[in-house]
Request: fold
Amino acid sequence: APPLPKLKTYAYADIRPYATTTKVFLVLTGIATLACMVATLLQWELFTHGAFTEQEGDASDKLMLTTGILRLIAYVIAGICLIAWTYRAHVNARSQGVFGLTLEPGLYACSYLIPFVNFWLPFQGMKELWTHALGQKLLFQVKPLKRHRQLYIQQ
Reply:
């Protein structure tokens, strides 16, 4: 008989630093978004008051650029942290002996970056963690295609 393939082993690591960092950068993204909104409001005020000097225009442009860059940086770092957190959660679940997770942790983590796949695969991964690792029932079931077919057939 041929030898059985080796199962991949996963090491457990504390997930709290990933969660905390992600939460901090999501809050910073929200603050940066509010700063962008305030900068836009100030620029609108400048434009609607009629004539303005070149220095006022340059200052407004620099403010918009700065807040936009800060928002982008916070958003990118929050996204990277979220991907790392997702990966670590899937690795930890496997290291604790959870069965029923269909894909590898790396694929779930990278699914946030793949166009169109990012619409359902991250949700599927979180749903599997919730149901298999925590043993919790979902609060709702998502079956849009089946429901859509039922509505179409009824017409």
In short: The two ends are 57 Å apart (CA to CA). DSSP finds five helices and no strands in the chain. The mean pLDDT is 84.
